[in-house]
Amino acid sequence: MATLLRARMLPGLLVAAAAALTCARSGAETPWVVYQGGDGPGKGKNIVFVSGDEEYRSEEGLPQLAKILAKRHGFTCTVLFAIDLKDGTINPNETRNIPGLEALKTADLMVIQTRFRDLPDEQMKYIADYVEAGKPVVGLRTATHAFAPSGKTYAKYGWNYQDKDGPWDRGFGRHVLGETWINHWGAHGRQSTRGLIAKGQEDNPILRGIKDGDVWGPTDVYEVRLPLPESCTVLVLGQVLENMKPDDKPVEGKKNDPMMPVAWTNSYKAAEGKTGRAFATTMGAATDLQSEGLRRLLVNACYWALGMEDKIPAKSDVELVGEYKPHPFAGNGYQKGVKPSDLEIK
After folding, report:
1. 84-88 long-range contacts, Cβ below 8 Å, gap at least 24?
2. CATH, domain 13-187+264-319, list 1.10.10, 3.40.50, 3.30.230, 1.10.3470
3. Which of 73, 267, 340, 342 is the most exposed place for a label (fewest CB within 10 A)?
4. pTM above 0.85, yes or no
5. What percent of the chain has pLDDT over 70?
6. Tens-digit pLDDT profile for residues 157-179
7. Domain residue spans in the chain?
């Protein structure tokens, strides 16, 4: 039994040891980046951003969102990355290593955009502890299918976990955010998304300063069924457009009848009878964040998740911080050789 236990623990221990060795080889360089908050409503609050997807460039989009929340709103923001165990660079194809997740122990909010991660138990434990405490979560795009654990300890977090009629059926995505991965609804890479305010939600604080058409992105609409209507509130519907420009015409037919939700809130059940606030959007590629309306939606959602909806301005300041030229979404399209320190505000 002891031998079997050691065998099961070995892969995770090797990842941790390799990560430590990587830091040592690189002069103990920190494999994450912190943007210190200043004055503003968020002063004293800590947000941890967890990136790690192979396609939608969360390693570019989340740092920009973190900069906006730090410099424009006062939150202290820590951004974590999938780190290559060999050289300490950001490598979204590394599915088993996101160092720094211990920052979640003191986080007030987790913003996550990962895809099919298979993290070792030593890292996954910080996410599980955070969720089971009922703390707030904001999930972008692929967060609906954030995890694909190969081990048993956190199997229930897997995007396709089977627990029929149980609370964790379809894993973290459906349980915490309200939905898991189903399919593309719009044509991937050919049909973009225009956001329309859901009927009755015009005065929702998350939508403050946002009107029909303000939210747009080149990513396509995902299929969403929201099987938890008693806990989910749809905020924005995704109008599938014919092409890849914000003023393109809507597609005719069933792709827009009915329109799929692209942003909603969920109240998820945590341990010991606790409940947690979650906001989810199936938008959020780095290129989507060039849309001022989407940036405002995400900033407002962070305020709401933290219970600070009364502090959401009439029109949140979402001006970009520094140069922002995100790369198009594409499998294996990340920029090689980038270290977290390269993303610091100079």
Report:
1. 84/22, 85/15, 85/18, 85/19, 85/22, 86/22, 87/22, 87/26, 88/22, 88/23, 88/25, 88/26, 88/29, 88/31, 88/339
2. 3.40.50
3. 342
4. yes
5. 92
6. 999 999 988 899 999 999 999 99
7. 13-187+264-319
